[in-house]
Design a protein that fits this description.
The complex is a heterodimer of chains A (441) and B (216). Chain A is 78% helix and 0% strand. With 441 residues, chain A is mostly helical. Chain A is globular and about 75 Å long. With 216 residues, chain B is mainly alpha-helical. Chain B contains four helices and no strands. Chain B has helices at 49-90, 95-118, 134-169, 182-211. Classes of the chains: A mainly alpha (441), B mainly alpha (216). At the A-B interface, helix 1, helix 2, helix 3, helix 4 and helix 7 of A face helix 1, helix 2, helix 3 and helix 4 of B.
Chain lengths: 441, 216
């Protein structure tokens, strides 16, 4: 068997073993080390720990526990409750207003956390019951929470973009700038959809009843605006210091975490129990990331040793005579398919080393490709069978929301995401304009 | 099932807000095919005593070490804040705080791995798996456990080899600060070994569950 065949066999056997439901890091690591031992003999036993040392030397990985902690702290301490009330009161009187307000809240939450879990937790436990109580269409609001929370990985700070930056060797600062406009654009498209949908069928999102509105005075409404200042201060202290070039990316993440703890302290919401719970959940989620990355690095090292990148290039360019755009679309399609059953971190570490050099060789901008990849991840989060969001939603949503509701709810938002991806492919400037402007190429 | 009541935290991490993977009901260890009339009077068949002792010991150790890893979150934060303050106030960057932060991060997730397994965080491709009953999940895990044990075993051997080499040759990190690598490698090796122990403990639990026996 030639090396390309072995690479293919490695990939297929990994997929086959994943179906058994055994832990992902174990299967990825096993296929890596077993192939290495079989091909190159016992001295390759050093490879698993080499991957651990490689992980140790990857400084930006330190942001993972920081951003995860911030997200959990934010939803655990009730800072998010105030934020929800703010948008509830201000957007509630409009048709579909609560859904629009929830989406706006998701954008704010996305700006202070790097994953989608925190947004989903806040959305499912705070916003969703409220919207159901106000007789919003349950399928639409389930979709709103799911789609909105995925903005967390697009709008900076973003853990997914940090990982992409490490693999593609692109400065994370550029990626964060690049994610900003596409993230807002997607949020805007979601809001547009809600407004249009509720205009066509008003029963899907009735405005707040008048008596409920009258209970809130204008003075209170303005006082509630203060709830928006805490996330703003956290966002500015973290992203501001980083973009001003004062602190490094990782140090900014530390400052963001400290700011979140201080905000919780200032609001007297920080109990010992909350702190311990948040820290334990952070450890759990960070370990998932790190153990998968470690195993996937081992796997990619073996994959690299087989020369799989060159094989793929020859196949696409030399044998199939594809145009660069066709190859790009093919890569996106394969990412989408893989994203439905692979964890996004594993997908990135395994596939990106193959694709990113190819993207650069084809003359595309790797920063722009990072944004396309992130949209793919957003879609992957929501698509069965392996969607983080589906899985978490099932655990967190009120009981009247069934699994079938959750599956049906994502359809319109998936289409919007595909449209957004098409827009970013057609107009790369949406992603590249801001970083080019700031870094002045 | 006392895994959570061992915990000084009082409460499993997942229950309150439901964030994080739902715990599989490990309390369903008592199977239907147990013989109520057995002479021991316990009502349930048990695995051999030394295995039960091993599982208890490993769970406790994993939890203790996991608590240390949780504390490392704040050590990590401390190093990053130190680096920021040094930069902002004194305009200097300390090589050592960056490197110490990186070492801390490695210790954090390797020492915390066992607790993340106890809390059942590690992700699986659950297309088929999620439809199994708890007992069938245990059976599937028992069958595929050799895969995991093979990986972690080779990882551990790999770590021991690298650590012994670092000790023998007094390896230092390739950086201006040049700290010795042996201490962090020993911690990493310990974390990987603990993960292997924890996976073995979960393996025994799954055997017990698959056979319908109690492990307590």
């Amino acid at each position: 068997m030639n090396y390309t065949g072995i690479a293919l066999w490695m990939f297929l056997s990994m997929l086959a073993l994943l179906i058994t439901g055994q832990r992902m890091y174990g299967i990825i690591g096993f296929v890596g080390i077993a192939t290495a031992l079989a091909l190159w003999g016992p001295e390759t036993i050093s490879m698993p720990f080499d991957a651990a040392i490689q992980t140790l030397n990857w400084y930006p990985l330190l942001t993972v526990p920081m951003f995860v902690f911030m997200g959990y702290m934010f939803s655990e301490t009730g800072i998010a409750d105030d934020l929800y009330r703010l948008f509830h009161v201000w957007a509630g009187p409009l048709p579909g207003g609560l859904a629009v307000g929830t989406m706006a809240m998701m954008i704010v939450i996305a700006a202070i956390n790097g994953l989608s879990v925190a947004g989903l937790a806040v959305g499912a436990t705070i916003a969703l019951p409220q919207m159901l109580r106000h007789r919003y269409d349950k399928i639409m609001v389930t979709g709103v929470v799911q789609a909105g929370s995925t903005l967390g990985i697009m709008i900076p700070p973003s853990v997914v973009l940090v990982l992409y930056g490490m693999i593609a060797r692109v400065p994370v600062g550029q990626l964060w700038f690049a994610g900003f406009l596409p993230g807002l654009m997607m949020g805007g498209l979601f809001i547009l959809y809600i407004v249009v949908r509720c205009a066509i069928s008003p029963h899907m999102g009735p405005p707040l009843p008048k008596e409920e509105r009258d209970q809130i005075t204008w003075g209170e409404r303005f006082r509630m605006l203060r709830a928006g200042t805490i996330p703003m201060v956290i966002f500015l202290s973290m992203t501001g210091l980083f973009l001003a070039g004062i602190t490094s990316l990782v140090e900014s993440a530390g400052i963001g975490m400290l700011a979140t703890i201080l905000a919780a302290l200032a609001r007297r919401k920080l109990t010992w129990k909350t702190l311990v719970r948040t820290t334990r959940m952070t450890l759990g989620v960070s370990c998932v990331f790190m153990w998968i990355i470690q195993a996937a690095l081992l796997y990619s090292a073996v994959f690299d040793g087989l020369g799989a990148v060159n094989a793929l290039e020859t196949l696409f360019l030399g044998q199939w005579h594809l145009s660069p755009l066709a190859i790009l679309l093919l890569m996106q399609a394969s990412f989408l398919v893989m994203g439905t059953f692979l964890d996004d971190t594993a997908m990135l570490v395994i596939v990106a080393p193959l694709y990113v050099p190819l993207v650069i060789q084809l003359g595309f901008n790797p920063v722009w490709y990072g944004i396309l990849y992130t949209i793919t991840c957003q879609i992957a989060y929501m698509t069965p069978p392996f969607g983080y969001n589906l899985f978490l939603m099932r655990a967190m949503a009120p009981p009247e929301i069934t699994l079938a509701d959750i599956y049906r709810s994502i359809v319109p938002f998936l289409l919007i995401m595909l449209v957004a991806m098409a827009i970013v492919i057609a107009f790369p400037a949406i992603a590249t304009w801001l970083p080019d402007l700031y870094f002045g190429r | 099932m006392t895994r959570e009541s061992d915990s000084p935290l009082g409460q499993p991490a997942e229950s309150a807000a439901g964030i994080g993977p739902a715990m599989t009901a490990k309390s369903e260890l008592v199977g239907r095919d147990s013989s109520p009339g057995s002479e021991a009077g316990a009502g349930v068949k048990k695995l051999p005593g030394f295995i039960r002792a091993y599982v208890r010991f490993t769970d406790k150790l994993g939890l203790r070490v996991g608590l240390v890893a949780m504390a490392l979150t704040f050590v990590l934060l401390g190093f990053l804040i130190e680096a920021s303050v040094a930069r902002l106030v004194f305009g200097v960057s300390h090589m050592w705080s960056t490197e110490m932060a990186m070492f801390t991060m490695s210790a954090y997730y390797l020492l915390g791995g066992a607790l993340s397994e106890q809390d059942d965080y590690q992700v699986r491709m659950d297309l088929v798996y999620s439809r199994f009953s708890p007992r069938n999940k245990a059976i599937a895990d028992v069958i595929t456990a050799p895969i995991l044990i093979f990986y972690l075993g080779s990882f551990f051997i790999s770590a021991v080899g690298s650590t012994l080499w670092a000790l023998e040759y007094g390896q230092v990190n390739y950086s201006p600060w040049a700290p010795p690598m042996a201490p962090i490698k020993i911690i990493m090796t310990f974390g990987i070994g603990l993960m292997l122990m924890q996976i073995m403990a979960i393996f025994f639990r799954d055997i017990a569950k698959a056979l319908g026996r109690s492990i307590e």
